[in-house]
Amino acid sequence: MAEKFNEDNKLTPKELAKHLRQPEGEIGKEVGLQMNKGNKHICLNSYKVLNPKNKDYILEIGMGNGFFVKDLLKMADNLNYSGIDFSHIMINEATIKNKEFITSGKVSFKQASIEKLPFNDGAFDCITTTNTLYFWPQPQDNAKELLRVLKPGGKLLIAYRTKDFMEQLELTKYGFTKYNVTDVENLLNLSGFKQITSQMIKEPELDFDGKVFEMEGMYTTGIK
Ligand SMILES: C[S@@+](CC[C@H](N)C(=O)[O-])C[C@H]1O[C@@H](n2cnc3c(N)ncnc32)[C@H](O)[C@@H]1O
């Protein structure tokens, strides 16, 4: 049976779109939990495509409530993870869910926007971000900011649903910028990334607001 999202139709498409962009308060917390179900496959597949190596310093942009951080940490030894998100409630939730990893120094979270990252130049071996591209305010400047905090030879992975898919969902009329693969590849190219490649991974069906969708995730990577 398909996974379900917004099963009881509590939120209008406009309200849901607002909380997907920036979850706030109790409703935002609930939307965060729904994302853990609806985005499970794209989040877990993004970490597989990222394929971190032992001791890598990893940055995630817009990790939401950080539910999948535990799965990323299992993918190699001695990973160091930093997550940033501009939603206060998501930082709170991610901190609660990952308390043990934070105490042991493997994980940290900061409330910040992709526009100005609170990290030094060349701080990370890889950067991953899932389902955030639609909300980047200045895509080329934002991609350059990611390039700044990557080490030379470091990898950026962007995981997203394509424009063709997103256009089927009413909520994407409200504040989403939609991209097809060539748009994302051009964005990375113009921002200074090299060796840009994309792949698609199919997922089980998803029941979204009572309608069943064939699902697939797109994964575009670029190297500094
Ligand atoms: C749709 S959710 C995706 C969460 C998770 N990555 C997933 O796929 O389930 C988008 C997340 O990105 C965050 N976000 C959106 N725009 C951002 C920005 N400019 N800077 C930092 N975080 C941002 C939101 O607060 C939210 O937690």
From TrEMBL:
Keywords: Methyltransferase, Transferase. Coiled coil: none annotated. Residues 59-158 form the Methyltransferase type domain. InterPro entries: Erg6_SMT_methyltransf, Methyltransf_11, SAM-dependent_MTases_sf. It holds the Pfam family Methyltransf_11. One of its GO terms (biological process) is methylation. One of its GO terms (molecular function) is methyltransferase activity. This is Class I SAM-dependent methyltransferase. It comes from Flavivirga aquimarina.
